[in-house]
Amino acid sequence: MEKHSERIQEYIDGQLGGDELRSFEARLAVDVELRSMVALQREVYAILCNDHAFHAPKVRMSLKEVNEQYRMADASPTFNKRKWLPLALLLFVGIMGSLFFFHTNEDLYALPAMRSVIVREPIREVSYKDAVAAYTKKSYAEASHILERLLAKQPEQMQYKYYLGLSYMGQERWSDAISRLQAVAESSTWFADDAKYYLAVIYISKEERSNARLLLDDISPNSKVGVKAKRLLHTLK
Questions:
Q1: Distances in Å between the alpha carbon of 95 and those of 47, 81, 88, 114, 230?
Q2: How many angstroms separate the CA atoms of 234 and 237, rounded?
Q3: Is residue 91 very low, low, confident or very high in pLDDT (cuts 50, 70, 90)?
């Protein structure tokens, strides 16, 4: 049987579809504990996937260990999830509070690192790994070309849409970037707040500050980009 935490992660990443998605969301609507687990896993993975979040290797490793132990314990019939929720949330709140002091104004406008976790995809001549390599080298035209081809095969994959939008940003293709990121911002995936943030960055570049403010105001303060959104909004006042 598939681990519970893996199914939650598939939901967060927008990888569930059809009957699987409907079944999961139906359970989510009535299961308070499941909603808490989804919220926690969103926060933990947001932290672990943020390259700018930590400058201390020991802190980064301790969080990875907590997350790994949580996932391993999930398979145990004696595991009490409620005991882990306060600990993980305490870690999250404490560290998020410290992040405010680690960012410079330049960080607020920089494109993020591309998540290297490989999404499920059939074997083909180009892969998500190729897109990550191109994006990391700041070869945004190459990255967007690869992601366009991948998205044509899997049009519902929000991860492709998000990084395609960022690749367009890297080329200053503002209209294309807005089109892709807007679709992600309106989704229920964990990329939604990130997409709103970078849409706001685009609107600032276009001198459309009122649109930027609306997007930044709509970002959850507990999301991966919550602290950055607050700081960027402050620069607009």
A1: 9, 21, 11, 22, 16
A2: 6
A3: low
Tally of residues, the chain: 237
Tokens in use for 127?
């892969």
Collapsed DSSP state (helix, strand, coil) of residue 206: coil
Distance CA 98, CA 83 (A): 24
Domain ranges of the chain: 4-99, 105-235
pTM for the model: 0.57
CA–CA dist 62, 132 (Å, integer)? 26
Judge: domain 105-235, CATH 1.25.40.10.
yes
Burial 127-141 (b: 16+ CB within 10 A, else e): bbebbbbbbeeebbe
Q: What is the pLDDT of residues 126-157, one digit of tens each?
A: 688 899 999 999 999 999 999 999 999 989 89
Of 187, 184, 237, 227, the residue nearest 52 (C-alpha): 227
Q: Could you report the per-residue pLDDT of 155-179, keeping only the tens digit for each?
A: 989 999 999 999 999 999 999 999 9
